[in-house]
Design a protein that fits this description.
The protein is mainly β. It is built from 2 helices and 20 strands. The strands form 4 sheets. Strands 1, 11, 12, 13, 15, 16, 17, 19 and 20 form a 9-stranded mixed sheet that branches.
Length: about 240
C-alpha cells in the first residue's frame, strides 16, 4: 500500500487581530491575541522542531505533550494555531494538539513552527443528524450524509483539525474509498489501533449503509461525496464534531 502525501508548505502572511488581556497563573501580564476564527479565517503551521508544548507560555510551565515532526502516516505533522502572545520578548503560540486526551491544547515557542498557513474552511460533523457540512468564508458550500461510529466505538466529539490527506488505499473498492483525511481526533475506545486509534474522514466500499452508526469511530462518506469534498477542503481545516 502506497500513500501519496498531498499539499505543501506555501508561506503565508499573518496579520494579527487586536490583543485582549487574559489572566494566567504563571504569566499574569501576558496579552493573548486570538489567531483563528472558525469558518472565516483560521491558521495552521507545520512542525519544524519537536518542541515541548506547555500549559502556559513559559519554558518553566507544566509539560503537556511534545510536538512530532511526522504523523503516524509519515506526512509532515502540523498543528492548528489558536492564540498568540509575547512573554519577555519571545513569541508563543497556543495550538491544538493531536494527542490524548482529545481537545488538548498547549503553548509552544513560535520558532518551533513554520510560517502560519491560512484556511477559510470549517468542517462540521453531526453524529446526531449524520451529516457533514463544510463552511467556507462563512458560507455553506458542501453537505452530505455520513456514517459515524457505533455506540460501542463512538466518534469522539469536540474540536479537531485535518492533519493529513492520503491516497493509495486501492481505489473506490477499498474499505476507505479513494481518499482519506486523517484528523487530530483519536478513538476514546480503540487505543490499540494503528496510530493509536486515529479518526479519519474517508470514502467507503459500502455506500448503502450511509447514513447511520456504522463505523469503528471514523466518519464515512460516499465516494462521490469525499471526492467533491477534496476539491473544497485543504489540510489544516478546523473540525467541530457534535
Amino acid at each position: 500500500m502506497v500513500f501519496q502525501k498531498l499539499g505543501g508548505r506555501a508561506a503565508a502572511t499573518f496579520a494579527a487581530p487586536a490583543a485582549v488581556s487574559v489572566a494566567s497563573p504563571s504569566v499574569a501580564a501576558a496579552k493573548v491575541e486570538r489567531v483563528s476564527t472558525l469558518g472565516k479565517r483560521s491558521y495552521f503551521a507545520f512542525v519544524n522542531k519537536a518542541e515541548v508544548a506547555r500549559a502556559e507560555p513559559s519554558a518553566n510551565a507544566k509539560r503537556v505533550a511534545k510536538l512530532t515532526l511526522k504523523t503516524p502516516e509519515k506526512t509532515d505533522d502540523l498543528v492548528l494555531v489558536l492564540d498568540r502572545t509575547e512573554v519577555d520578548g519571545q513569541e508563543w503560540l497556543r495550538v491544538r494538539l493531536p494527542v490524548r486526551p482529545n481537545n488538548t491544547t498547549g503553548w509552544v515557542p513560535a520558532e518551533a513552527l513554520s510560517d502560519l498557513q491560512p484556511v477559510d474552511t470549517w468542517l462540521r460533523i453531526s453524529t446526531k443528524t449524520f451529516k457533514v457540512t463544510l463552511i467556507k468564508n462563512g458560507k455553506r458550500v458542501f453537505s452530505a450524509p455520513i456514517g459515524v461510529g457505533q455506540s460501542q466505538w463512538p466518534t469522539p466529539k469536540g474540536q479537531f483539525y485535518i492533519r493529513a490527506k492520503l491516497k493509495g488505499y486501492g481505489g473506490a473498492g477499498s474499505v476507505y474509498g479513494p481518499l482519506a483525511y486523517i484528523t487530530s481526533a483519536t478513538s476514546p475506545t480503540l487505543t490499540d489501533w494503528p496510530g493509536g486509534g486515529l479518526v479519519g474522514v474517508h470514502g467507503t466500499n459500502a455506500p448503502g449503509l450511509i447514513p447511520g452508526r456504522i463505523s469503528h469511530g471514523c466518519v464515512r462518506l460516499k465516494n462521490a461525496d469525499i471526492l467533491r469534498l477534496e476539491k473544497l477542503m485543504p489540510v489544516g481545516t478546523p473540525i467541530t464534531i457534535t
